Amino acid sequence: MEREQKHQEVALLKGTFSSAKSAVVLGFKGLTVVKDTAFRKGIRESKAQYRVSKNTLLRLAVKETAFEVLTGHFKGSTAVATSQGDIVALAKAVHTFLKDNPAASFKGAILDGKAVTIQEFQAIAELPSRDILIGKLLYLMQYPISGLAIALDQIRQQKEGAA
Predict the structure, then answer these.
(1) Which CATH architecture has domain 3-127?
(2) How far apart are CA 61 and CA 155, in angstroms?
(3) What are the φ/ψ torsions at residue 39 (nearest 5 degrees)?
(4) Which of 5, 6, 29, 155 is the most buried (most CB within 10 A)?
């Protein structure tokens, strides 16, 4: 890679890290092209980005960003998945990939500005999706109202029957 290409790569990575809310650093030794392609598809579906780059360039790119603490994880074969949005979707995509590919490894992550351990990462990955949580919340909010409506209807029917 020539010097100009390296500068462009660092600039691209810096832009990615500057706009991201979350990043997951992975080791991917022994990963086949088919599995990598499948993972990239899963990452795109979660509206995230995935990049394999040289560790030196990654170290330069994260300087003076919220992801600078990940510098120690940039050793060996390194890939980074970043997201500007839904951290649960990113965590699910990465977690599924890690379960299906024992050759890949979790090195570290910052989710929504907070460094997380592998246990915290797994807990987040096992959360229901945002849409499911919203659906459950709406159901819980409607349940007391529908229960009240049923109770009022039964009272009305009793009064009509008594009259």
Answers:
(1) 2-Layer Sandwich (3.30)
(2) 67
(3) -65, -45
(4) 6
Rounded to 10 degrees, the C-alpha dihedral 82/133/36/3 comes to -10
pLDDT per residue rounded down to tens, the chain (163 residues) = 788 998 999 999 999 999 999 999 999 887 888 888 888 998 998 899 999 999 999 999 999 889 999 999 999 989 999 999 888 889 999 999 999 888 889 999 999 889 999 999 999 898 887 788 888 888 877 777 777 777 788 888 888 876 6
Domain ranges of the chain: 3-127, 128-163
pTM of the predicted protein model: 0.75
Q: Between the CA atoms of 40, 58, 90 and 16, what dihedral angle is there, to the nearest 10 degrees?
A: -90
